[in-house]
Amino acid sequence: MEGVRTSTILAGISHISTVISAVIIMFIPLFSAAEIVAPSGGLNQLSETKVTLVELNGTGVILTLIFPWVVTGLSVVSTIMGAPERRDDKRVLWRWRSYSWGAAIVMIFFVALSFTTLGIFYIPALALTIGAAVFNK
């Protein structure tokens, strides 16, 4: 074994960046919310504040934040198991390498479908996951 491959490094950085993105989204108030300050009769006074994603949507959103972490974790495992230095059957190596492409495609869909809220935070992880899939040959 010559050392750590580029695809493994990219997948590892992608995996770490999803954790950083999730921490930013969970603990830094980035989203706008309106709350009623003084309800009276037919008129309500609203105040717009910045809140975290967990405050805005509840704890159920944590599963949505964990999903990219799991996908990039699969990319890390597939780049390690698909290493060309392994003496396994070539079919097994290609199967592991296809998982990194699958992780990249799933991340593309995740970022595209959630681009207006969460997806924009995961663009670096998406680029690194695609890079890991490309270099995993």
Short description:
The chain has 137 residues and is α+β, with helices and mostly antiparallel strands.
Set down the secondary structure blueprint.
Elements lengths: L5 H22 L3 E10 L2 E9 L1 H5 L3 H21 L8 H24 L9 H13 L2
Antiparallel strand pairs: 1-2
Helix pairs in contact: 1-3, 1-5, 3-4, 3-5, 4-5
Distance between the termini: 15 Å
Return residue spans where pLDDT drops below 50 for at least 5 consecutive residues.
none
Per the principal axes of the C-alpha atoms, what is the gross shape? elongated
Q: Tell me about the biggest sheet? A: 2 strands, antiparallel
Q: What's the total number of strands?
A: 2
| Computed Rg | 20 Å
Structural class: alpha+beta
Number of helices: 5
Mean pLDDT: 86
Percent range of helical residues: 55-70%
Question: Domains counted in the coordinates: how many?
Answer: 1
Determine the strand fraction and express it as a percent band.
Answer: 5-15%
Strand order of the largest sheet: 1-2
Q: Would you list the SSEs in sequence order as H and E?
A: HEEHHHH
